[in-house]
Design a protein that fits this description.
Largest sheet: 8 strands, antiparallel
Strand content: over 45%
Strand order of the largest sheet: 1-13-3-9-10-11-6-7
Order of helices and strands: EEEEEEEEEEEEE
Number of helices: 0
Shape: globular
């Protein structure tokens, strides 16, 4: 598993292969619209130092056959905790997004959002699609926050392959940060 800003030039068996890097600069979204197929059993997205232009939550949507999915059944569940010993349930169902943060991301220059997100079996024709997430961020309360959980997307049919993924804020643009997509080997 890859963490932080590490890039492996020669990946041993079972490690990831860097496939693509996208960098924000006042971007409405950061997207991976190619390269997600049956080549790898799992795709990992490593997010580093993501900063929104205004306080906002980070959302995700899937692409299917080159089209962005803005209707269907997106579900998410997890736990969000703060270093001040508070914790919250992160859960919901929406027709057009998955939310990855319980609180808004802060816009202070020294605060940011980092995460590892895994998309297993995007080309499967026998199971619903999901992502697993592990995040770290600050939201202006002088506490570090961490969230982890899982999601599910159902098109009403489990035979729909996911071909891309979009990361975006619920309001405003992304001023800075990078997301790297890795392909993970099955063995």
């Amino acid at each position: 598993i890859l963490y932080g800003d590490q890039t492996y030039k020669t990946a041993p068996s079972g490690m990831g292969t860097l496939l693509e890097t996208v960098t924000a600069s006042g971007s409405a979204s950061l997207e991976f619209t190619s390269g997600i197929d049956s080549t790898y059993s799992t795709y990992q997205f490593v997010i580093n130092d993501l900063d929104p232009v205004s306080a906002a939550k980070l959302y995700v949507r899937f692409y299917v056959g080159g089209s962005l999915v803005t209707s269907g059944d997106y579900e998410y569940a997890g736990r969000d905790m703060a270093s001040g010993s508070s914790q919250w349930a992160l859960y919901g169902t929406a027709t057009d997004f998955i939310v990855l943060t319980y609180q808004d991301l802060d816009i202070s220059t020294n605060e940011n959002f980092s995460a590892n997100i895994w998309l297993p079996n995007p080309s499967s024709t026998v199971s619903y699609k999901n992502i697993i997430f592990d995040t770290s961020y600050e939201n202006g309360s002088a506490y570090i926050r961490g969230a982890g959980g899982g999601t599910l997307w159902s098109s009403g049919s489990d035979s729909t392959a996911v071909t891309g993924i979009k990361f975006y804020m619920d309001t405003g643009n992304i001023t800075a940060g990078t997301i790297r997509m890795y392909g993970l080997n099955a063995s």
